[in-house]
């Protein structure tokens, strides 16, 4: 008699066999648009990351797809409002085609028509009958299409406005190549410096604002070539300074805000004391826009917008302390204008991810055991010359912190970004168990 396995046991074995099969491999990226995507993703997306079934965030998408977090935010605006709410199985844009500028070529077909007419007439005459035979007219038309190529080019004419003023010492923007650094100050020991330094105090930002109004108005296209310059009385003593903008690589529309931001960086250039400046030059992060201030050496009548009075010692840069940001306040706490010791300094969002990578490499390397106690700190300098401090502190108990944990946690500070151009004024964030606190403090 045949022996049969009990039915319930058979079912158990079958289900075990099915569950033991490995799940089919799924590519995490695809050039084909998935069924589920967010409606506000980049319209010209040509590659998507498929979110893992066990959960993803914008930061893990960045790491697995090999793209920056800022690009993930740019191509998927929805994630800015819900970085942690990534839908499993949905597609998230990670690439768009590069934009290529081409010269347009128009081909026009010109019709050339040739018409030939042949008429044959035969006349036969006899004494009794006259017969006239006319062969029908034959017309032949031949049409040829001859291509004519027209190349369209655009020429830009830019009028350079300059207000030269007499001076014993003339600076040239070529003295300050961008390869020398993002900020290059004229020092008291420089041979060709003007002997007169302008006040570098409360009127400095007001003078910069008026200079930018004269240079670009609200906005203006600046082309590659000679510097755009203007001169005005820069301080309450009546000393004149020249303000200059020069395009190095390719022309673009410079707004008043960009002009002010670049020239304001020169407030870090100090003369014989902390209240004056002999000027200098500074550059945009891409080295394309050079902005300079050159004391002119002449005197004029102070403008009514300059506040009279004696300058005072500028206040010291305010510093932040990790104790200002207790974890009970939330897993992410951003520095704002209302934060105690707010110093108004921020790191450009475009360079934040690179700075985080450098900081985590210095803080923990590949991995490092961090113990409870005082914070572990490191300092970097951003493209605008500001000192930036990164800090890590264990709150509950020491453990091995790897570089990935350090970077992923600090990336949450991207949510603190403000302004245009986008920048991050800093703050603190924590691991989910509130054991590890990581902070970024610009200006510390």
UniProtKB/TrEMBL annotation:
Keywords per UniProt: Signal
Region described as Disordered: 119-169
Biased composition (Low complexity): 119-159
Cross-referenced CDD domains: LysM
Keyword Ion transport set for record: no
Signal peptide: 1-20
LysM domain mapped to chain residues: 47-94
Feature: compositional bias, Polar residues: 160-169
Protein name stated in the entry: LysM domain-containing protein
Organism this protein belongs to: Orbilia ellipsospora
């Amino acid at each position: 008699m045949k022996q049969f396995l009990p039915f319930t046991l058979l079912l158990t074995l079958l289900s075990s066999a099915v569950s033991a099969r490995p799940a089919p491999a799924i590519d995490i990226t695809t050039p084909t648009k998935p069924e589920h995507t967010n409606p506000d993703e980049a319209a010209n997306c040509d590659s998507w990351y498929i979110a893992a079934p066990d959960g993803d965030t914008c930061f893990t998408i960045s790491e697995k797809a090999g793209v920056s977090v800022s690009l993930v935010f740019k191509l998927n605006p929805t994630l800015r409002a819900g970085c942690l709410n990534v839908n499993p199985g949905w597609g998230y844009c990670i690439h768009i085609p590069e934009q290529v500028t081409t010269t347009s070529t128009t081909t026009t077909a010109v019709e050339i028509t040739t018409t030939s007419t042949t008429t044959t007439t035969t006349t036969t005459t006899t004494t009794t009958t006259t017969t006239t035979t006319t062969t029908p007219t034959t017309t032949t038309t031949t049409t040829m299409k001859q291509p004519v190529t027209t190349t369209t080019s655009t020429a830009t004419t830019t009028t350079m406005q300059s207000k030269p003023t007499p001076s014993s010492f003339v600076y040239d923007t070529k003295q300050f190549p961008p390869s020398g650094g993002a900020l290059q100050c004229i020092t008291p020991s420089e041979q060709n410096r003007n002997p007169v330094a302008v006040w570098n105090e409360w009127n400095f930002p007001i003078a910069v604002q008026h200079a930018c109004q004269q240079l670009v108005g609200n906005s203006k296209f600046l082309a590659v070539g000679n510097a755009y310059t203007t001169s005005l009385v820069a301080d309450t003593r009546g000393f004149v300074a020249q303000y200059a903008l020069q395009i190095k690589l390719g022309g673009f529309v410079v707004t008043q805000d960009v002009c002010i931001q670049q020239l304001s960086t020169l407030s870090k250039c100090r003369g014989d004391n902390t209240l004056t400046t002999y000027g200098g030059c500074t550059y945009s992060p891409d080295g394309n826009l050079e902005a300079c201030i050159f004391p002119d050496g002449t005197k004029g009548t102070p403008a009514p917008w300059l506040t009279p009075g004696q300058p005072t010692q500028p206040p010291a840069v305010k510093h932040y302390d990790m104790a200002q940001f207790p974890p009970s306040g939330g897993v992410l706490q951003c520095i704002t204008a209302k934060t105690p010791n707010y110093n108004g300094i921020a790191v450009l969002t475009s360079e934040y991810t690179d700075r985080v990578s450098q900081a985590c490499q210095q803080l923990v390397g590949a991995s490092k055991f961090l113990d409870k106690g005082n914070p572990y700190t490191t300092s970097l300098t951003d493209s605008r010359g500001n000192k930036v401090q990164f800090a890590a502190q264990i709150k509950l108990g020491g453990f091995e912190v790897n570089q990935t944990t350090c970077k992923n946690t600090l990336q949450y500070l991207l949510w603190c970004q403000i302004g245009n151009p986008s920048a991050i004024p800093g703050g603190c964030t924590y691991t989910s168990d509130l054991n590890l606190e990581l902070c970024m403090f610009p200006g510390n």
